[in-house]
Design brief:
This protein is mostly helical. It is built from seven helices and no strands. The chain has one domain.
């Protein structure tokens, strides 16, 4: 198995980063822009603001259609839940490899692999400012 190589580079702007991450998928593009614009308010403890979850998706190797599946299918188009799941992985409450596998399932079977509400509760407990 080859090692994952991140796509976003230090010289990238938000536009170039989002283009690299979305793989031309309109749903992924829309999700990434929503993450970028809403994360600073939803997760004020994220020091990198709206860019934080996008960099985290890149580090997990979740791109294009898989980003759309995460937001649309697994998190039911709820950006707060999407951000909570990503933050839960970052905080060690959920395995990133399992999330990546779940996001790669286009038959919606990935939804049952991710305990979204439980992860939201864990993030909220650890980060009281999350979605306040």
């Amino acid at each position: 198995m080859s090692e994952h190589k991140e796509r976003i580079k230090l010289e990238d702007t938000i536009v170039s980063a989002v283009m690299k991450m979305s793989d031309g998928n309109p749903g992924a593009l829309s999700t990434l822009m929503e993450i970028y614009s809403k994360n600073p308010k939803i997760d004020p403890d994220d020091i990198i603001q709206g860019f934080g979850p996008i960099l985290h998706l890149d580090s997990l190797g979740i791109y294009g259609t898989d980003i759309y599946i995460l937001h649309n299918d697994i998190c039911e188009r709820d950006i707060v839940k999407t951000l909570a799941v990503l933050r839960a992985v970052q905080l060690g409450h959920f395995n990133g490899a399992i999330l990546k596998d779940a996001c790669h399932r286009q038959d919606r079977s990935g939804k049952s692999m991710v305990p979204v509400d439980e992860l939201y509760a864990k993030v909220k407990e650890r980060l009281p400012n999350f979605n306040s």
